[in-house]
Design a protein that fits this description.
two-stranded antiparallel ribbon, two-stranded antiparallel sheet, 3 helices, 117 residues, alpha+beta
Length: 117
């Protein structure tokens, strides 16, 4: 184990045993910056919902990179194909397109908004 990693394991053990976190699941994956090899991991391959602080960092990065006036634009159209007509979707990475979490982005609402002729 690399220098300092026993302290990391001890710190993670203390963190995991904190009574306030008895229902929490934490993950950590540390790599050696020179070799790229994993030197410490806990739940490294477990899918975890991002913490609120991670969401803040992501939002701040998006604001900085995309700007305050950025909006996603997903375009829809009908194109002719050998088998007839097909729906064409030009995606933009819109994280709210078709989300079941909000009434105005549920699948049936999104599909109803697409005017197919």
């Amino acid at each position: 184990m690399a220098q300092g990693l026993p302290q990391l394991k001890t710190a993670m053990d203390e963190f995991n045993n904190d009574a306030q976190l008895r229902f929490a699941l934490a993950g950590l994956y540390v790599i050696d910056g020179l070799t790229g090899e994993a030197v410490f991991e806990q739940n490294a391959y477990t899918g975890l919902a991002p913490a609120s602080t991670e969401k803040i960092v992501t939002a701040a990065t998006a604001l900085d990179v995309l700007g305050k006036d950025f909006t996603y634009e997903t375009k829809f159209g009908i194109i002719s194909t050998p088998g007839g007509k097909s729906l064409y979707i030009q995606a933009s990475g819109d994280p709210t397109l078709g989300s079941w979490r909000w009434d105005n982005t549920k699948e049936e609402v999104v599909l109803a908004a697409i005017k197919m002729r």
